[in-house]
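step=encode ok
step=design start
structure_in=
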């Protein structure tokens, strides 16, 4: 849920504010990292479908075909005049370029989608194509309700599609594979784009003569200075050091990056020295990090009212000049764009995660795939889903991409959200950053694709005095946040989630209880509870389903 919230807020804030496609879970031009398919199928298109199935990845059906679908409607989705979810730039492209007419059996607000889809699954009333969660995918496969797409993927996926879907090392495709058969197309995204950087008020550092924090001790000293040395110069003790949201984890003013500084990795699975999978939230390093947070809270370096404030409230404090440090995603600076326009002297900078010791901190990377596209068992054209994905990826990120037509149009409308299928290369933003920086250094943007040229132009405009390009420069410029993430990648400083399977039965039964227990315990400790509360939490976690889940994920690992 937090990941979905991040994407939605990113779209409405950073994307629409900057008129760019910087977010959406990580927007990046793919770098080839090997071709391949999940199964050893034939290289020729499967011929089990109707005879008019076009042979090439982007060839049109002749005569045209119709496929049925259902889909969620994102909150705040906007349309240009005359357009609708079944009549827009994407639906018209599907018909004119692929000969595929998409007929929606129903649509529903995103918040109600899972419930309505579950009813369709239970009543065996699926459309030809639907997006599902990992848990729904597992259920559909077990019930025999969806097509094996192995041969269709091998035969119809374009080279670009295969490259993008394999760019995470193959885990996305593996997560959609059961007993060696591919049953879904993963909605590709960037886990690396969901790792944390440390955002700091660089103008406050300069005013107080402070260095950029590199250690956790530096971080605490910087937070203390931001509280006690009046960095905003108004003569009042009204500033906070470290921003923190009430949910503790997530995409803005969250704690993943702080914990990572102590080599702790909450909410993801790790391999211990023996190769066994262990859950990061119950490891002793978490207790150390919580103790430091408790010290900072007692010292007034964290807002005493943080427990009542969500990410948007913390962002308001940052924009109002009351906050000097927070951990979050590379695109979080977009939320401060309006404040920068109003206060040109405000300057935020992204830094690498400080470490508590001499070992560099690793940034944790969640498994990024939360949505899958499935095809109903018995659908007349199972390969159509693959071809639709080919077109989506081509028009968004390929050689013939038209971002001002299919991504964010000239009216600032996020038309990419109309696409039935969607995906992004995990490294697309990181590569775009590298390309834009090189173009800025040389003064020659001729080698940039259309999306990258948009970033280049915004940065050039900012350097020419237009503050509206500041957010883009803070992400894609030479000292941008994407450079921090790229530094992690080049130094091997990403800590991946070691579990990428479907939710186990224990997770389904117990995760809600365990997550509530974790939030309550960690909050109590930060606000002054006993350190022994953590040990009690570990014991309760085991007894309330954690031990069962640990056994299940290790059984899963043994089967890989």
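sequence_out=
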């Amino acid at each position: 849920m937090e990941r979905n919230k991040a994407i939605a807020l990113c779209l409405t804030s950073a994307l629409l504010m900057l008129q760019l496609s910087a977010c959406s879970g990580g927007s990046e031009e793919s770098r080839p990292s090997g071709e391949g398919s999940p199964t050893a199928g034939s290289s020729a298109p499967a011929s089990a479908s109707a005879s008019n199935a076009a042979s090439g990845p982007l060839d049109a059906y002749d005569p045209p075909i119709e496929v049925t679908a259902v889909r969620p409607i994102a909150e705040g989705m906007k349309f240009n005049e005359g357009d609708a979810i079944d009549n827009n730039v994407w639906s018209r492209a599907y018909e004119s370029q692929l000969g595929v007419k998409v007929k929606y059996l129903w649509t529903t607000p995103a918040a109600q989608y899972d419930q309505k889809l579950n009813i369709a699954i239970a009543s065996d009333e699926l459309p030809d194509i639907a997006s599902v969660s990992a848990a729904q995918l597992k259920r559909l496969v077990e019930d025999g309700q969806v097509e094996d797409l192995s041969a269709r993927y091998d035969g119809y996926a374009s080279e670009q599609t295969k490259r993008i879907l394999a760019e995470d090392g193959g885990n996305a495709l593996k997560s959609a594979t059961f007993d060696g058969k591919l049953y879904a197309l993963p909605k590709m995204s960037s886990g690396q784009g969901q790792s944390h950087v440390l955002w700091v008020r660089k103008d406050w550092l300069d005013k107080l003569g402070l260095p950029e924090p590199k250690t956790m001790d530096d971080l605490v000293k910087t937070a203390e200075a931001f509280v006690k040395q009046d960095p905003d110069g108004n003569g009042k003790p009204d500033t906070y050091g470290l921003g923190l949201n009430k949910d503790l984890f997530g995409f803005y003013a969250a704690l993943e990056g702080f914990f990572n500084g102590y080599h702790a990795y909450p909410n993801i699975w790790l391999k211990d020295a023996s190769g066994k999978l262990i859950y990061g939230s119950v490891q002793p390093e978490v207790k150390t990090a919580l103790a430091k947070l408790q010290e900072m809270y007692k010292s007034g370096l964290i807002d005493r009212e943080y427990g009542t404030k969500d990410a948007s409230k913390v962002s308001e404090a940052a924009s109002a000049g009351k906050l000097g440090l927070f951990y979050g995603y590379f695109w979080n600076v977009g939320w401060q764009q309006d404040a920068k326009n109003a206060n040109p002297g405000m300057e935020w900078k992204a830094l690498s995660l400080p470490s508590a010791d001499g070992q560099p901190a690793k940034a944790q990377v969640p498994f990024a795939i939360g949505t899958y596209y499935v095809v109903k068992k018995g659908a007349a054209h199972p390969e159509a889903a693959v071809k639709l994905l080919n077109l989506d990826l081509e028009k968004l990120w390929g050689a013939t991409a038209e971002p001002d037509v299919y991504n964010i149009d000239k009216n600032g409308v996020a038309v990419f959200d109309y696409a039935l299928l969607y995906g992004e290369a995990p490294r697309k933003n990181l590569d775009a950053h590298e390309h834009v920086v090189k173009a800025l250094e040389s003064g020659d943007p001729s080698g940039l694709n259309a999306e990258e040229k948009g970033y280049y132009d915004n940065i050039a405009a900012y350097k020419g005095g237009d503050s509206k390009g500041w957010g883009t420069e803070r992400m894609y410029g030479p000292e941008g946040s994407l450079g921090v993430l790229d530094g992690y990648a080049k130094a091997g400083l990403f800590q991946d989630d070691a579990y990428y399977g479907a939710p186990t039965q224990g997770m389904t039964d117990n995760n809600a209880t365990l997550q509530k227990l974790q939030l309550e315990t960690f909050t109590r400790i930060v606000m002054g509870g006993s350190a022994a509360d953590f040990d009690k939490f570990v014991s309760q976690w085991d007894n309330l389903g954690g031990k069962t889940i640990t056994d299940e994920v290790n059984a899963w690992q043994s089967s890989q």
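step=design ok
step=annotate ok -> DSSP finds 21 helices and 15 strands in the chain.
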